[in-house]
Amino acid sequence: MKYLERGYLEADELPPFPPEERINSKKPVAYIECPQSIPCSPCYESCRFNAIEMENINDPPKVDYEKCTGCMACIRVCPGLAIFMLQVKEGRGYVTLQYEFLPWLEKGDRVRLYNRRGEEVGEGVVTWALKPERNDRTQLVTIEMDKDLIFEVRAVRKR
Amino acid sequence: MRLESHPIVDFERGKEVTIYFNGKPIKAYEGETVAAALYAAGVRVFSRSFRFHRPRGFFCAIGKCSQCMMEVDGVPNIRTCKVYVRDGMQIRTQNSKPDAENDALAIFDKIIDTVFPHGSHYKKFNKSRKVREFATKQMRKLAGFGNPPKSIPDIETSYEEIETDVAIIGGGPAGLSAAIHAAKYGAKVVLMDENNYLGGQLIKQTHRFFGSARHRAGTRGIRIAQILEEELRQYENVDIRKETKVFGIYGKDVAAVQKDSKLLRVKAKKIVIATGAYERTLIFENNDLPGVYGAGGVQTLMNVYGIKPGNKGLIVGSGNVGLILTYQLMQAGVDVAAIVEAMPRIGGYFVHAAKVRRLGVPIYTRHTIVKAFGEKKVEGAVIAQLDDRWQVIPGSEKEIECDFICVAVGLSPAHELLYHVNAQMKFVPELGGLVPLRTRYNETSVDGVYVAGDVAGIEEATAAIMEGRIAGIHAAITLGYGGDEAKKELEEAVKDLEDFRAGPFGERIVCGLEKCVLEKEVMI
């Protein structure tokens, strides 16, 4: 439980990565960084494909990467902002995350990229942004970045 | 200092009005409290303290502390965080000359501090009764308490007697839920709340809630308040009284004052006390300086009234409240210098910590705040590392640049009314302090008096809603409403709450509850 002393996960505490061919496929895949037993289950309840496994409301969610279709139902409702959609396409990496700050992001915006520790690790471009009012003001944004960064980048800010 | 835009909340401000603060005109908007309007205008010193005229700002902003007391339209000792602005309102600071900001008597503070160090007044004048009485009398003359008005205020008053089945005190998540479930089965309900809105502390919870979708997880707290209110308004047998302060319970008669002028006597068969909790404070040097706020106070200011608390904050406590507040401050465009936590690990949910950590907010575990500094308001703070015995490690002190400090170290139940009814109380640390003994249906040792929500033990809103449901249904059943259907739902509600508390985060609560179970004949 070292992560509770720091507030972020280190490499050895992360859930298993999705297999490479799944990351490289046509649909993005959900990656959930929610290791703690807390009474919360909206992601599990929102998944129509039974890709999220949970034994009870306190059990941390586990994603079955083969069943996940990348539909993004779970990332829309996660109150912990702990779900990220990952994808690699034509040699570029894409991360979709929840965004709740002003100014809202729009397609084409350049953003600074931050890792779990809050360190700036590069720059990316918004390739898709869900309008905030379509999801009770939690925007979903997809950021294009270096493909090696998709397991690193967990926050963005507008330049 | 007012926010014009916010990612989650649209601030709907009322008509512009002018209020007068010590004679000086200040712009405000209808719907704002006096304290919020003054804060937005840059006022930080609201009063002078009992002890030698030290400056005081507000602390809780929800009417539980008394740091923001002023004279309003000639009436002294009004909690300015609880009265709403009206055009032409006259507000004055009390017992300070010429005003609280520049108080001539504050010179005593400096002189006395050199002779009697801070805190010694607790012991100084207690040797003999005569000395104590004399000293107390002199100190009261100097202290910042108001003087009674010299003439009777010219206000129209009236009196109303109401008979009802269930009287509910407090319109937060617990009270609303109790009202809905008692009304649903046909009981006549009177719901009283001191605010001009329902929802209690939900109205500042802009984040999405945890839990299961069935209990509205993934929905923002502010929307849950709206959903509950709409649900309640479907029932015609509910009488909602806002801006109604309950000041006493005499037997089964609830005494309240509505809109500061109308006296109410509510003769009820059952009473549900759902009065919530107080923000707790923490002991450190200068913790009374303006700029040291309760976490909930800052949330109220920022998320309800759209007023920025400052430019850079320090958060003390890494429970869910401290972590969520940090994120909300950042959403309002306020910087957070750091979060300090005395325990060796983060107290709240990891995911809440992760989302502020990745935006660059440091979290110092095994650290505490040593002091705040500043003349009339916070200008910075010193934090330090703690050893295994919770003592400050010398040399580990670090200065933090900040202009306000949020104390998020927990809550205590607001239990006054329980003493009015003479309920059996017990000190249970796991539940946050003094709580009433209760049956599994949340009835106290006094027949027909129920508790629900934080007043029964500090938890969170989802549990409060579930407790209200249990109390409401049981009250209705024992009055003969509902029948088998109600009994079935009651058992279901008890089971739901048990399931909710079954995880590791519920362990402490369950352990606390075991200490205050009341085994009395429960009728169902």
Automatic annotation (TrEMBL), chain A:
GO terms for molecular function: oxidoreductase activity. Residues 59-88 form the 4Fe-4S ferredoxin-type domain. It holds the Pfam family Fer4. InterPro entries: 4Fe4S_Fe-S-bd, 4Fe4S_Fe_S_CS. This is 4Fe-4S binding domain. It comes from Geoglobus ahangari.
From TrEMBL, chain B:
Its EC number is 1.5.3.1. Pfam families: Fer2_4 (PF13510), Pyr_redox_2 (PF07992). The keyword Membrane does not apply. Residues 15-97 form the 2Fe-2S ferredoxin-type domain. Keywords: Oxidoreductase. It is an enzyme of class 1 (oxidoreductase). GO terms for molecular function: 2 iron, 2 sulfur cluster binding; sarcosine oxidase activity. It comes from the Archaea. This is Sarcosine oxidase, subunit alpha (SoxA). It comes from Geoglobus ahangari.
